[in-house]
Amino acid sequence: MNLKEKLILIQQDNYHTPPDTFTLVQEMLHNIGTTDAQLRDDLIYTTLSHWIPSNIMTTYELEQILTIVLDDNHLLFKLGETHSDSVFTRSFSMLVIPLLLMRHKETPFLSNERIHQIKDAVFHNIRNEKDYRGYDETKGWAHAIAHAADVLEDLAQSNELDEVDLLTMLDLIYEKMTISKRIYSDGEDERMVKPVMCILDRKIVSQTYMQQWIQRFGAVEKDSEFLPAFRQKNNIKNFLKSLYFRIKFHGVYDAALCPTIEQTLYKVEPVYYSS
């Protein structure tokens, strides 16, 4: 019986664990970058999402999973490649990290040093990820940037991360929301707003800094060619609009951030935002 057949049976059995659970998890992690969308997304990831946050595996096994996920054959696998299948391995390895952090939140098992190892690996991945595809019609979700945003959301809430870490996170978000290679069309802007909101919730970064960070989007270095500049401008507008309404509807932050976003949008595209 192959892995797909095993996981279909487990799914049909309401995700009850077999005697060789950890061995099977290792096999799933080995195949996490498969181009079979059903196996990768509906079976491997979904099964892990049931098992990892629960108390099924020991902390030793969870540590082993984390070590695998962060290695050169998973989160860092062929990092920097574009339009190759390696993105599926990186992206879905990234998506395992929130499951581990969820388990840690309920039953702490990660040391402060381990949390920072996760942070460093995740930051390195995001800084160097160049494959910005969302949904691939043949192979399903790549979504590396959206999955990275999910991890940043969890890390931003971690007390182990200090102001310097949060400022670095804001820089990474800025970098990825100002790309000119593609216009994000699969919810990446909404997903990337979530860690920003978590940073605001921490109340460590000053409002003045946040205003200056928002204003940077209006002063981004523009590409000299029309199409890349057009893509970048649309990514900036979409992200700022998503941030604007999330802040507005959240209702607890100083209202000064919304006018700052309005002013920045005007600077990015005065023809559409002038009265």
Q: If you had to describe this structure to a student in words, what would you say it looks like?
A:
The protein has 14 helices and two strands. It has 275 residues and is mostly helical. Helix 5 packs parallel to helix 8 (144-156), helix 6 packs parallel to helix 8 and helix 7 runs antiparallel to helix 8.
Q: What share of residues are in beta strands? A: under 5%
Calculate Rg over CA atoms. 20 Å
Q: Structural class, please?
A: mainly alpha
The main sheet comes to: 2 strands, antiparallel
* Helix and strand sequence: HHHHHHHEEHHHHHHH
Classify the helix fraction into a percent range: 55-70%
Ends distance: 65 Å
So what's the overall shape?
A: globular
Given as residue ranges, the uncertain stretches (5+ residues, pLDDT < 50) are: none
The DSSP helix count reads: 14
